[in-house]
Each structure stands twice: as structure tokens, then as C-alpha cells.
Amino acid sequence: MGELKFLSLQGISRIKELPRSIGMLKKLVVLDLKDCYNLEELSEDISSLTKLRYLDISNCYLLGKMPKELSALSELQVFKGFIIGDPQRKNLGTLEDLKRLKMLKKLTIIATRNDFPTPEDLGTFLELEALQNLTIAWGVQPKDAEAGKSSKLGPSLHGKSTESSGRELTEKLNLKKLDLQCFPYSTPTWLTPDILPKLEKLYIRGGNFTTLKKGTWNVKALRLKYLSGMKTNWRELKESFPGLDYLERVKCPGITLCPCDENGVWQKPKT
């Protein structure tokens, strides 16, 4: 199968690991492992897939760590399901290992630590110059016993790390789309229009998020869902998002006076 370019094992729940021979598929461009619920480990031989452009390991809930060898996938453009785990665990791949992926355009992260992103993490995002689409989901913990004991999730981390993150990040991110899910703290100081001047789509779903930093955003599409603590109104949103074309507001009782339809959607009238 040396000429194979596309391999999808999506949804095959009995797969626990990939064979080492996966590294022999030198021409593989797409590897889809989404929904392989019992996959426990990614072989380090994945580093041999140097032509890989698309890797999806999302919804693989037993994966407790990432191999550091992922840094060898220099042509990777889309990576879904990268796990941010406990930095104290040995031989654990970290976000910093992705710095060499200069072609990475889309990244989906599962964060099992509430202190993510740290100042170091934000610095890594700056080095991923091609990155335009970033999704971060917090609070999904691996079912690995060792990881479960060592992961430090808790309200004591809320806000503390974000203050230092905001002070230390002064450069601008190139992101055009940012999707934050189950946000663990209320007001991240790094989420500002000055740091994200190119952002066109901002989605915030669930969690403890309450406040967006004031400023003038260039965002055109804004989706706010299941944010029980966020309080604002239509006038304030229009002041912060003057170029808004699309708003979706779902189960956000504190966001008031928005001219949304029965589905919680407002769209700018066409002229």
C-alpha cells in the first residue's frame, strides 16, 4: 500500500493502537481517526508520514498524550484533536512541539488544564504564522488513570494565568476564526481586538465566560451560545462589532434587546 494517500478509520471503535507499519505509508496525505473511541496511543512511527497534510484524532477519548514525534509532520495543514495534558508527565508532546509545523492552518485543541493557554502557549501560537483557524475546548479529560490523577482542573486556576498571559502577549495573532468551548474562566485578557486584529469569526460556547474586552473588533460573524453569565445588550454589541453581518445568540439570557429571530439569529439586511 505504498501509494496510499487517503486512509480513514473513522468510527472503528475496536482499534486500540495503530501498527508500527503505519510509518511505511510514506505518501499518505490524509489520516482520519475521528471517533476511534478506544484508541489509546498514537505510534511514534507516525513521524515517518512526512507528506501528511490532514490529521484528525478528535473524539478519541482514551488518548492521554501526544507523541513528540508529531513535530516531524512538516507539511501538516489541518490537525484536529491535539491534546494539552499535564506538563509534568514524562515523554509528553506539548504545544511547543508544533512550532516546526509552519504550514499548519487549522488546529483543534482539547485542553485538560484550566490554565491553558499560558504565556508560553500564546508565544507558540505567534510562531505558527500560517495558523488562521483555532478551536480550543476545555475540560475534556482523558480516561487514562495516570492523567486523571495528575491533571489539575479547578476554580483556583481561573483568571490567574490569563492576567499574566495578557500582560506578556504584545504581538498580533493572524487568526481569522476562533472557537472557544467550555471556557473555564470569565475574562481572558488576551482576547482583545488589538491582539486579534484579523479575526472575522468569533464563536464562544459554554463555560464561565462573562466579559469581552472593550474595543473595536473586525469580527463579521459572532456566535454566543450557553453563556449564562454574560451580560450585554444589542447597542453595546454594535459598538464593539461595527462590521457585524451575522449574530447567533442561543440560551444567553443576559444578552438582551438583540433583533434575533425565533432561532436566535440576526443577519445584516442586504442592500
Strand content: 15-25%
What structural class do you assign from the helix and strand content?
Answer: alpha/beta
- Order of adjacent strands in the largest pleated sheet: 1-2-3-4-5-6-7-8-9-11-13
Query: What is the share of helical residues?
Result: 10-25%
- Indicate the CATH architecture of the largest domain: Alpha-Beta Horseshoe
State the domain count.
Answer: 2
Q: What is the fold named in CATH at topology level of the largest domain?
A: Leucine-rich repeat, LRR (right-handed beta-alpha superhelix)
- Note the main sheet: 11 strands, mixed
Please identify the oligomeric state.
Answer: single chain
Give the CA-CA distance, first to last residue.
55 Å
Low-confidence stretches: 141-167
Mean of all residue-level pLDDT scores:
86
Number of helices: 4
Order of helices and strands: EEEEEHEHHEEEEHEEE
Compute the CA-based radius of gyration.
Answer: 20 Å
Q: Name the overall outline.
A: elongated
Main CATH class of the largest domain = Alpha Beta
Say how many strands there are: 13
